[in-house]
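Protein folding task:
====================
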Amino acid sequence: MLNAFDRSVRIVLRGGLIATSWAAMLLAATSARAGEDRGLGVEFTDCVESIGVGLVSTDEMRALIPSAFIPVGEGGPVTPIVVRTARCGGIAVNGGRLRAGTIVQIGAVIVPPDSTGDINNYTLWYYTSNLELAIHLAARGIPAQYVPSLDFCYAPAGPGLPASLRVVVPRPAWPPLQIEGLVTASDGPASSFLANWWVKAGRRVVKMGTSVPEIHIGAADLLLETWHRGPLGRLIGGDTLGFPALQQFNTFAHARMGVTFSSP
């Protein structure tokens, strides 16, 4: 039977092969395998991100998240699902070298488990093109998939002007998906934001808390597409999902994510 760390490594490998030159990262990450409460610090620089919040069946969502976490739509027919994409010019893990990378996260918007954060989400799927980040997150029980071919296509059109955005998470990542539409960056006043993403990993709870000291919030008009017979398609009830609850396209120069552990 695979232990938690072995399963995590297989999740990383689902999206691509690890080159020999990266093997040291895998060895370093083994110190964080299940049973050791070692946190993680990640710095993000020069980032653009899209945020979309849609609505799905509460019963379908409830079946995917542990009972200790409460979807904000509990008791109603629908509950919010959040889809985040981000491209950063630099991602540094535990003070290491900055490397560019893209991230796609999908989760359930939940009631804050610890009364912190501007938004709290339970992580359903996590993809990244940054191998070091994928390895370290997976070693801590987060279902991170390494997807080297993850494509984030965005060309700025100037302040206040709409530009096209296309993000593709291809196979063998699972479930594959695509997000496409128009986005408009903002050059208006910045605000701060704290986003918490949660995972139940074995007998412990993992929290990814990302603090953004200055974020410029813009607009978006996006559509998600996926295979209707895959797990994401079953959750959204088809092959497409719009985001009537919330859509944003944001920019920020710096953010920091801390990964911590607690008992359920």
